[in-house]
Structure formats: C-alpha cells, structure tokens
Amino acid sequence: MSNVRISYRNYVINYYADDMFQILNLVESTSKKLTFSFVLLLLAMPIFGQEKEHWENLFNGRDFSGWKQLNGKASYEIQNGEIIGTTVANEPNSFMATEKDYGDFILELEYLVPQGMNSGIQFRSLSKPDYKNGRVHGYQFEVDPSDRAWTGGIYDEARREWLYTLEYNPAAKPAFKKGEWNKIRLECIGTSLRTFVNGIPAAHVEDDVTLSGFIALQVHAIQKDDVPGKQIKWRNIRIQTKNLKPTPDDQVFVVNLIPNNLSDAEKKNGYVFLWDGKTSNGWRGANKTTFPDKGWEIKDGAISVLSTKEDKSKKGGDIVTMGQYGAFDLQFEFKLTEVANSGVKYFVVEKDGDKEALGLEYQVLDDEKHPDAKQGVVGNRTQASLYDLIPSIKERRGQHKIGEWNWGRIVVYPDNRVEHWLNGYKVVEYQRGSPVYKVLVARSKYANHENFGMADKGRILLQDHGDNVSFRSIKIKEFNKP
C-alpha cells in the first residue's frame, strides 16, 4: 500500500474507530482501482447511513451557568465536578432547573442518593405564574431508594401524579444500586418517554400533554420530624438533541395515555384495539344480534352510557364484544359522573332466560355518593373491586376525582391468576377456581349460579346501569394458553 493510503488509513482509524473497519477493507481490497479523490469522497460520507452520537455537557462542572433554582431553598453547591443538593427544614420541593427548554432529547447522568431520601429528575417540566403560583410541574424520572424500589418510574409532579409505577415492570426494581452511583438514561422522542436504570429498561409512557420543557434536579421536601442535611449528588450530566437514535424496542409494558392510540411498541407487544374509537364495530347488545339503537352514544372518541334515570324506556342495555376471550390483558379508560354506577365484566356467558349477562365484574362506581359502595361485605362493591367478591385495596393517589379519566386494567393469566389495576396500582389479585375463590362465590349473590366465572372463554361487557359513564382507549392482548 502506498504511503498516501497508509496515511489516510491511519486518519480514518483515528476518526471513525470501529465504524470504519468495513470500509477500510474495501479500500485495501480495491486499492488499485480506487483513486485518491474517491477515498476523500468516502471519508466525507456518513458511514453506512449512520452519524456519530453528538453529546453536549449539560453541566460544566464548575458553576451553575445555564441553570436556575426554582421553588424551595434547598442548598445546591458544586464540589469536584459534582452537584450536591442538601435538604433543609420547612421548605417545599426544590429544583435546580435548566434555563433552556428541551423537547426531543436523550439524557444521561449519574446520581448518588442516601437511603430514605426520595428525589427525581424533572423533564419536559414547566413553571408558570398562572399555575399554582409557579410551582414546578411535569414529568419526573423517579429516584426511590426505599424498599418500594420505583426508581425509573415516571411521576407527573404537581399534576396527575403517577403515570408509570414499577409495579408495571417489577423486573426493573433490582436495577437500582443502594449506596452506589447509578446511571440513568432518559429518552424523550415525540410522545414516547422511556427510562433506563443502569442499562435496564424501566418505564415506557406514551403521552402528549407536554412536548417541551426544562430539565431539573430535585431535592425533595422533608417531613417535620426529619433531620435536615441529607445529600444527593449528580455528575456527568450530558444530553443529545440531534440525530437521536432510540434504544431498540425492549417489550417493556407501555402505558399509553393518548386517547384511542396504539403505539408501535404496543403493537409489537401484541395489543390490538377492542374498540376503534369511532363506531360500534365489534360490539352488540347483550343477548342481542345488533348494537342498541338507544341508551348509548359514540362521540368525541368516547363510547358512553347515557343517563336514563328520568326515562327508563330509553335504556339501551349492556353491550358485549363479538369475540370471546380466555387469557388476556385488557386496558381501558373510564370516566364517571356523580352517583354513577357501571362495570366492565369478563368471562361473560349469555344464557337464555337470564335477566342479565353474567360474568366477573370490575366495578366502576362513585364510591363516595353511590349507595352500592356501602353494600356487600367489607367494601367488595367499591370501585375496581371484583364485584361482590373481593374488595379493591386502593391508594389515595390512585383515586381520581369524579369527571376525570381513570385508567383501568384487567389481566387474566393462562393459569387463571387475575389482577385488577386502577391508575397504576394493582388493587385486586386472585385465582379463578381456587378454594378461596369458590368460598367467596358461595357467599356471594352468585352462589346459585353453577361454575360462575369459570368459563374457558367469554365476552367482555360494558354495563348499562342507567347512569352516565364513558369509556375509551379499550385495547387487549391475548395470551396463549399452554
């Protein structure tokens, strides 16, 4: 090889490293045919359509240029190229925020947090005078060193609260290392929000509420009886904003908060729409051949039961899916009006002569004002309960106000384990056909119905209880039974 080619070979190795090995082989194998100008052309071209990652330091390691403190007055200082946040008494959550807003980006940083100190990294966040007097609000990458282990979950600070708890992805809980430096990666591209903890995929949310905002490091407020002075540290904070390449799909469970939307990741995970968001296709009246011509309304991306309290003759009755389902993961959103009652039933079997299509029921109810919440036993008719059988154990933060959309989920595994979820929390867990299940049925209103809830497959039903209740974003994934 000539000295010119050797010189450019070394230049290429230094500049492109591993990405250039294939093209170097091409240059050497065809050295007699390649001209000097063609070699220069190759050097100027992106290698195989790829461009090098371009990282920018978000923190210069010396001072807070480009940053500003918001809300609380926790101490932020810089030592050895690290940002150190220290808790103080009688202050709200404090945030060291970028002065610049970011929309699509990939963020990486390292942090060290002591046991018992909750914290987080805000992203696409806002602070406006007309919203809670400038309180910081928006998405947060959760930092949770407690035994709950939700580090990497996505919380909506001062707004909707939990969007993605790590109960959706428990395999990511061990990724956080207590007492050590941890590395996070956050990918925000379009409506896709994905988190990683020490290389392990943690959360995936699809949401379009805020598409741009600042990034901030949180020092959480402390309780009155907590001793101030706990410290959290951050370092090696860097960001990409151009030529973003997301991590390949990882089959992590996706929480999609965009109404009637099915993301590519969800499709790859096996989910399909159970309702198309526009028509009655795929549904019919229970024990009927067609969709009801009254009592239901499809409007503005929601399918709603209309109130017929004043005129019961306008009631349309329950609706069911055309298809039948065995093991599945069903997701749906629902919105209640005051004193409303409805339900989502599954393993529904229609029988001639029955007054209603029977099945296991995920209760949809105004717990505060509807009298049915006080009926049954120990709250087993409250919202998200397995109606008349098992009460839901709800977190305060998992209960939305009447008139707000709730996110429900019913999971039936091939081994007959069943879960009810409400707004990010698992609130009911049982196994169909177990001795405990049989005892519960025997003591319920279904005691005289043989093999209640034990069909191999059944329809999914939306209940018309005569109250105004809306549903949307209904999707399902089927599991293969062994």
Main features:
482 residues; Jelly Rolls; 8-stranded antiparallel β-sheet; 9% helix; disordered N terminus
Summarize it:
The protein folds into three domains: 3-44, no CATH class; 56-250, Exo-inulinase, domain 1 (Jelly Rolls); 270-478, Exo-inulinase, domain 1 (Jelly Rolls, Sandwich), CATH 2.60.120.560. It is 9% helix and 35% strand. It is mainly β and 482 residues long.
Strand tally is 29
User: Could you tell me the mean pLDDT?
Assistant: 90
In the CATH scheme, what's the topology name of the largest domain?
Jelly Rolls
Q: Can you tell me the number of structural domains?
A: 3
The first-level CATH class of the largest domain is given as: Mainly Beta
Radius of gyration from the alpha-carbon trace, in angstroms: 28 Å
Give an account of the 3D structure:
By secondary structure, the chain is mainly beta. The protein folds into three domains: 3-44, no CATH class; 56-250, Exo-inulinase, domain 1 (Jelly Rolls, Sandwich); 270-478, Sandwich (Jelly Rolls). It has helices at residues 3-16, 21-29, 36-44, 264-268, 435-442, and strands spanning 56-57, 67-71, 75-79, 82-86, 94-98, 105-112, 119-126, 137-143, 154-157, 161-164, 182-189, 192-197, 200-206, 214-219, 231-240, 255-256, 272-273, 283-285, 296-299, 302-305, 319-321, 328-336, 341-349, 358-365, 405-412, 417-422, 425-431, 459-462, 469-478. The strands form four sheets. Strands 1, 3, 4, 6, 11, 12, 13, 15 and 16 form a nine-stranded mixed β-sheet that branches. Strands 17, 19, 20, 22, 25, 26, 27 and 29 form an eight-stranded antiparallel β-sheet that branches. The model is unreliable at 1-44 (pLDDT under 50).
